[in-house]
């Protein structure tokens, strides 16, 4: 290859200089301007010395040439020799070109700068803010809940970093979150997996970080890479909460994130909630009320006034809060034995509307012995359950269901999904059979003989996009409800959906319970972003071991048809070794947003429960 010529070297140097941006272009225009002014001035001194002398020589000619370059219109007033006027015209024409180029360069430079500002590439300057990394439909749930949690905080800030246009993110969030209240929203465009982009979020002073599992193929790879980027960055490391879509990726995510990261297993959590909802109608509504910041919230409270009391004695201790368990150095216990003594190291787990309302009552509300019923607990026998449709978490659903049902129970899976017929191993209580079925077809559903089942679970088919899968689920629910009406059959129907907006449509089907899996995960992430210690509490609630939430017939606890206080329900449940946390009114089961569920009611306010109503308790199976 030949050696570069001088011309090529000069052109290469010039190209590199021009690529430095607006400042370099302005510099070149300034040099050209100076050259033009100097050239015209020198020519004037040489060719028209008389005219130059009348303009004070070289200094005057430099000034005159500068004025002609900056204001070409002044050439019309020039007098002198023809050559002098021609030189001034040359300065004016050169200035016209230079000024026009300068205006264009400045305009383009300002446009580029505005676009950069619009993209959100500046470092945020906030303290105590909550950072959300990534983008998915859950971001709307998280922002909504955090806004409610910080409704009284004028300095609340939520910062979102995602590989999307800044203005589009802000518009989408404001469209889904009707009122941001006093919370400040800051969006930045960038990739959460890039350390340089993470620096934009000022993580050293952040209160907590939420890593979202994005939509698309293999979302966990993106989350794990983001956790690696967070772990490797220098500076302070705030608590991190992340959602993992597949249980199989949890071990890799733990290694990537380290000890400061709390992981939410999306598949596992949704599977447990689907199973529990299939067993007890209204379970998902109770969990969503506990997870959101709109109704009763879960708090950890250290109260010296309870030290030395037993757990059973502390149950009615708060008028506007409901005790549900203890947090000890060894872990959380919900609904512990009633004779468990509360020590100074224990924290009480309570449900309350707000932490400012958690105060010990001056006088313990008394239970009414006349309304307490001592009905025995009836253990269910073998059952038949039908699962319609199939997805990646279906196998977890079956294994968790096996831990709840009595020995000898049967489960049938009806779907045309290719994975639905894969044999199961390790089941103890269930016998599983798979059937080929198009679940939106009325005749195919009728051929299943649904009258022999006690429970029907409708899963979301993962072969279709979320919106289409929800539409198919709605079609199946409509067919099931119409079949129940026509044939007079009764079995509980629990369905899984993705979009919270489809729940209002599904209410037409009068399904017993609807689990919005994406919303539940978003609510859980928002709770843990506020207080990661609640992870133990929610982990306990979703576990099949220990005590769980059960809406049970009110007639087993108190006399129906007569006014009773919640204090009486608490006492009745305590005598069974259970903890009452609220009740559900059947006549309001289809009324959003709480669907008849009342958590943490006033212990003295009377309510009349009917035969179809339930007392919601924490209890073991």
Give structural notes:
- This protein is of the alpha/beta class.
- Among the domains are: about 110 residues, Helix Hairpins, CATH 1.10.287; about 130 residues, Rossmann fold (3-Layer(aba) Sandwich), CATH 3.40.50; about 130 residues, Rossmann fold (3-Layer(aba) Sandwich).
- The protein has a six-stranded parallel β-sheet, sandwiched between helices. It has a six-stranded parallel β-sheet with strand order 13-12-11-14-15-16. A four-stranded antiparallel β-sheet has the order 7-10-8-9.
- It contains 20 helices and 22 strands.
- Strand 14, helix 16 and strand 15 form a beta-alpha-beta unit.
Topology diagram in text:
Elements (H helix, E strand, L loop, with lengths): L5 H13 L3 H26 L1 H6 L2 H14 L11 H38 L10 E4 L4 H12 L7 E6 L3 H11 L7 E6 L5 H4 L9 E4 L7 H14 L7 E5 L5 H8 L3 E5 H14 L3 H9 L5 E5 L9 H4 L6 E8 L2 E4 L12 E6 L31 E5 L5 H9 L6 E6 L15 E6 L6 H5 L8 E4 L7 H22 L4 E6 L3 H6 L6 E4 H14 L3 H8 L6 E6 L9 E3 H9 L4 E6 L12 E3 L6 E3 L5 E6 L2
Parallel strand pairs: 1-2, 1-4, 2-3, 4-5, 5-6, 11-12, 11-14, 12-13, 14-15, 15-16
Antiparallel strand pairs: 7-10, 8-9, 8-10, 17-22, 18-21, 19-20, 19-22
